[in-house]
C-alpha cells in the first residue's frame, strides 16, 4: 500500500537528514540504537516508528538542529496519526482490519499498541475533517427555513424557544460556544482551532497561531488543562472552554536560559551533560509534554515519565514546576550517578562526534 501524504513527508525529512549526514543505514543505526533495516523502512516510507525516541536519536546523530527536531516531531505525530487510517473513500464503506481500533474513546488508547493514545481520530471510514453532527445540521436547516419565511414577510423577529417574547435573549458571541466549535481536537484546521490557540497565547502559552491543531497545540492544551486542575483530555471540552475564556490560568514559566542556569547549579557533578540531556529531552521547556504509545506521558524539563512520577511522589502539575523537576531528575541521576533514565538522549550524546 502506498504511503500516506503525511508518512511520505515524514520519510522525506528522514532521508534529507540521512543524506546530509553522509553515513549509511547500518552505521547510523548503530549510533541511534536501531537496526539499519528499520531505518531504511522509515526513510522509504514503508513504516512509521511507534516510539518517537527512535526518531529523536536518529535525528540527533544526523546533526539535526533544534528547529529541525521540532519539525520532525510534528511530521512524526501526523504520520503516526495516519498509521491505521485506510486509504479508501467514505463511499466504499470498508470493513475494519482485524487489529484496527474502531471508534476509541477520546484520550484512551485503542487495542493496537501502534496507535498513539494521545491522538484522537475520526471514524476510520470517513475523511479526516471537522464535521457537524447530523442533529445540528437538521436544526440549522429548520432555522434557516424559518428565517427565510420571515424575511419574505419583510421583517425579522428573533424568538428563542422557551423564552417569552418580552424577555431579552441571552447571547454568547464567544466562538468556541458556536455550533461549529462544539468539539475541537487533533487534526482540525479551522477558525475554532485558531481561537483556541489565541486563547492559549493570551494565557502566556508559547505556540504559533495558525489554525492547525497539531502536536504543538496538543502539548500546550495538555499543559493548560493540567495547570487548570482538570483532566488532560486532549480535546477542548466545555470545562476547557470555560477555563480558556476565564483567564485565570497562566502558562508563564522559566526561560530556557534560567532553566539551564538552575540545572548547572543542581547538577554540580556534571552540569554540562545535564543541560545537554535536558535540552535533548525538552528543549529546556518546563511545560513540554510528550505522549508515549503505551498511553503514558513524559513531563517537564527532564521529561519525567508517569511511572517515575509515582516513584517520586510527584504529579504532572508538580513536574511542570522546573525547580521540582530539576531536583527530581537529580534524585534519579543519584541512584547510579549516571543518566540511565534518559537512554535515547544519553546514547545520542555519546555517539555524536566531538567537535574541536
UniProtKB/TrEMBL annotation:
Residues 83-135 are annotated as: Disordered. It comes from the Bacteria. Signal peptide: none annotated. Gene3D superfamilies: PGBD-like superfamily/PGBD. The chain crosses the membrane at residues 141-161. Keywords: Membrane, Transmembrane, Transmembrane helix. Residues 193-244 form the Peptidoglycan binding-like domain. This is Helix-turn-helix domain-containing protein. It comes from Streptomyces cellulosae.
